[in-house]
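User: Hey, quick favor. My workstation is busy. Could you predict this chain's structure for me?
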Amino acid sequence: MPNRKLSCGTVDQGLGVFEDDASVRLGARPARPQPPDHTARFGSKACVLSALLLALLALLATQPVIADDTDPESAKQDAEEKWTPPEPPGALERRDERERMVRNQIAEPLLDRIPVTDRAVLTAMRAVPRHAFVPSNLSRHAYRDQPLPIGHAQTISQPYIVAAMTERLGLKPSMKVLEIGTGSGYQAAVLAHLTPHVYSIEIIEPLAGRAAKTFRKQRYDRIRTRTADGYFGWEEHAPFDAIIVTCAAGHLPPPLWQQLKPEGRIVIPIGGPYDTQRLVVVTKTRDGKRRSKSIMAVRFVPMTGRAAGKGKGKGKGSG
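Assistant: No problem, here it is.
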């Protein structure tokens, strides 16, 4: 059979099939041209992308997994370490008087007193402008070694007592403290230099209002206050790491004991208004038992309200 001449004829795009011109001559029906097929081109790109994705996943699988094992307590401690004590504007005034007050009355007392040695407490006593918390007509006496009247038969305690009671609380920045008897606000301000978690209750509304105003003026913005009977504590924010009572009671109010955390402390003057009062530190052990220690003889105004057989303990507050 003679050799038939093959021509390049029609190319089936994408498949590369050639037609035989002899078959055309013999009357065979030529193959219909097929539309362009992009599947192979796109398919090759998809294969490349799939390969890259698999390679990336393989690479990620070889990387160490870092677990989020942050301890909530550690996170809380880190946050507290970033906290800075308040900077009251009044601290710029009468610095020398406060320095002498701390040195002669508190840290190195000349009288028969137990020196206060806690550095944080001494720093707080140097920082809080006591003169901003006493009536203006008594401002010149603010740093004397004595209590001063603030109206409504109440007083601001002498600086040494404030420092001594504060030291006995053993406060740290992470602790929450409740004060019973806001009074002038001076004691709460001292506490605010040791922890940002200060809660204070005052039963006498005019005193509570005046103290709140002083807090705002001196930028003690984080102190939470409430006008109520302190005998019942502040259950909504319990439990507390420490409780300080700045008025004398014949006994430890049961609600305060219930709102104290295990291993927490209550510093309170115990005794009637005409009896010998003792400053007592009451500690709640881990298993809920009570341990008391008498520190010194003191003289405080009496707790009113329920402690005196009056009131129901409800009130209003800022927090």
